[in-house]
């Protein structure tokens, strides 16, 4: 069930209606059932995996909560880590390592057929695995107390708005919200609907319309001139941003209507004036997860310079591998790590502002960072190093080549609208920004967004890009 599908248009109002009609003591049951149904719409069999992961971490958490030292808790943390990462490894990484091992043997003239499994990757497995791991680690450290209510914990793992692509929430932030009796309020409803509406606009009108052009260029880059390929790279930067940001807004908006607050996952990342700032604005829940559960345990920044650079490369490389079992993702992460280190050398103590308006004098720097990010996105989009090679070869060899790459004018118009709106929303959010405008202006914007979604949305509903992770 996609957020941009008719099924969700029926599902969400039904959940909202039932949620506020039911007595408080039954709401968690309904919400958990709705979340499991939401997940089962992809592949019902994979419910077993998420339920197993939930039970393992719930029981390990209870056991750790009864012990008074980290040393005694360690075996149960190991059980949680091995179980969750083992499941993730099997479904997401087994084929990659098996095929890589076979290639290595072939290089030594040892021929062996690789053992692979042909199955669909459970949707959202990387997200809910990290979410449950954060809980187990926090209980182990004593940062939080274990949740004794199995239903509340299961709901934390499977809460449908953020189940399949985040935000990756921490238990101390989301868990307690399930124990609060939420009331239907106009503010929550209006702000939630604003986020959903804007999220649908940037997903269905911006991202989905860019998708076809990007696919055409990446499928056969040798057919196109350099200018067209550069346009495709530019398009993909905004396709993935509008796609993932749109999902996040719909997730946050859906939860908001029910009374729940999810963290913001994006803060105008393409207006960043440095690589470090970009990662403080892009996929915030993932970058903070890696900071807290990998970078800091490795020693963080309070180490020798050589060790700091090592820690940075480890974090970014693993971040790339988290996204996909492919060398292109690993190199994508490593390149960001390398740029992060170079920036650290050139500017050891950067100062970034997350309040106020965008400083116009920093536009050239922001454009430069955007260009760097756009080039690195080629590795992310390609999913294969052969495609990466073909893209960059065509860029170098087809300079001046004439081709026919026509883009519908409305695609450019809505892309420009999205870019301008992102500048206006710098360090803000659509629901807050529009909420401060005059009533007539607000409704004109609402009708405009509804109209363009109906008229200009893509021919088909493309899945959200991050659903594959």
Annotation field: number of helices: 18
Please tell me the total number of domains.
Answer: 2
Radius of gyration: 23 Å
Write down how many β-strands occur, each being a DSSP E stretch of 2 or more residues: 0
Mean model confidence by pLDDT: 90
State the distance separating the first and last CA atoms.
Answer: 16 Å
Strand percent estimate:
under 5%
Task: Briefly note the structural class of the backbone.
Answer: mainly alpha
Low-confidence stretches: none
Give, in order, the helices and strands: HHHHHHHHHHHHHHHHHH
Note the main sheet.
Answer: none
- Name the helicity range: 55-70%
- Globally, the shape reads globular
What does this structure look like?
This protein is 68% helix and 0% strand. By secondary structure, it is mostly helical. The protein folds into 2 domains: 6-107 and 116-181, no CATH class; 187-273 and 352-468, no CATH class. Helix 3 (47-65) packs parallel to helix 5 (125-141), helix 8 runs antiparallel to helix 9 (226-258) and helix 9 packs across helix 14 (363-382). The protein is globular, with a radius of gyration of 23 Å. The model has no long low-confidence stretch (mean pLDDT 90).
Overview features:
469 residues; mainly alpha
Question: What can be said about this structure in brief?
Answer:
The protein has helices spanning 6-21, 24-40, 47-65, 70-107, 125-141, 150-158, 171-174, 186-219, 226-258, 275-281, 284-295, 305-323, 327-346, 363-382, 385-397, 409-424, 430-435, 439-456. It is mainly alpha-helical.
């Amino acid at each position: 069930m996609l957020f941009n599908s008719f099924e969700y248009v029926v599902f969400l109002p039904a959940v909202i209606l039932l949620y506020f009609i039911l007595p408080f003591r039954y709401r968690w049951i309904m919400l958990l059932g709705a979340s499991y149904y939401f997940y089962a719409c992809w592949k019902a069999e994979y419910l077993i995996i998420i339920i197993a992961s939930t039970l393992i971490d719930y029981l390990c958490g209870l056991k750790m909560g009864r012990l008074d030292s980290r040393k005694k808790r360690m075996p149960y943390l190991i059980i949680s880590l091995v179980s969750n990462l083992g499941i993730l490894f099997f479904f997401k990484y087994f084929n990659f390592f098996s095929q890589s091992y076979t290639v290595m043997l072939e290089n030594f003239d040892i021929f062996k057929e690789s053992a692979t499994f042909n199955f669909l990757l459970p949707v959202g497995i990387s997200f809910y695995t990290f979410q449950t791991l954060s809980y187990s680690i926090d209980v182990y450290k004593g940062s939080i107390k274990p949740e004794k209510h199995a239903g509340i914990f299961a709901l934390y793992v499977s809460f449908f708005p953020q189940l399949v692509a985040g935000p990756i929430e921490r238990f101390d932030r989301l868990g307690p919200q399930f124990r609060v009796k939420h009331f239907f309020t106009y503010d929550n409803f209006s702000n939630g609907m604003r986020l959903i509406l804007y999220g649908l606009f940037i997903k269905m009108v911006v991202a989905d319309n860019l998708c076809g052009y990007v696919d055409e260029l990446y499928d056969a880059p040798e057919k196109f001139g350099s200018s067209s390929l550069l346009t495709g790279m530019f398009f993909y930067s905004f396709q993935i941003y509008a796609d993932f940001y749109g999902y996040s807004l719909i997730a946050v908006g859906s939860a908001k209507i029910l009374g729940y607050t999810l963290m913001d996952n994006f803060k105008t990342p393409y207006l960043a004036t440095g690589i470090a700032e970009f990662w403080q604005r892009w996929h915030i829940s993932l970058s903070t997860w890696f900071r807290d559960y990998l970078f800091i345990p490795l020693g963080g920044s309070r180490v020798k310079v050589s060790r700091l650079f090592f820690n940075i490369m480890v974090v970014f490389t693993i971040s790339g591998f988290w996204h996909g079992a492919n060398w292109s993702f690993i190199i994508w992460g490593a390149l960001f790590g390398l740029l992060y280190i170079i920036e650290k050398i050139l500017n050891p103590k950067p100062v970034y502002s997350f309040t106020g308006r965008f400083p116009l004098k920093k536009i050239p720097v922001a454009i430069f960072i955007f260009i760097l990010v756009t080039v690195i996105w080629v590795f992310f989009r390609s999913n294969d190093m052969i495609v990466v090679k073909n893209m960059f070869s065509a860029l170098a060899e087809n300079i001046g080549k004439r081709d026919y790459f026509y883009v519908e004018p409305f695609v450019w118009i809505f892309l420009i609208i999205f870019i301008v709106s992102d500048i206006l929303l710098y360090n803000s959010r659509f629901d807050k920004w529009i909420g401060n405008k005059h009533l007539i202006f607000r409704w004109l914007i609402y009708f405009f967004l509804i109209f363009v979604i109906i008229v200009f949305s893509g021919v088909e509903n493309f899945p959200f890009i991050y659903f594959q992770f």
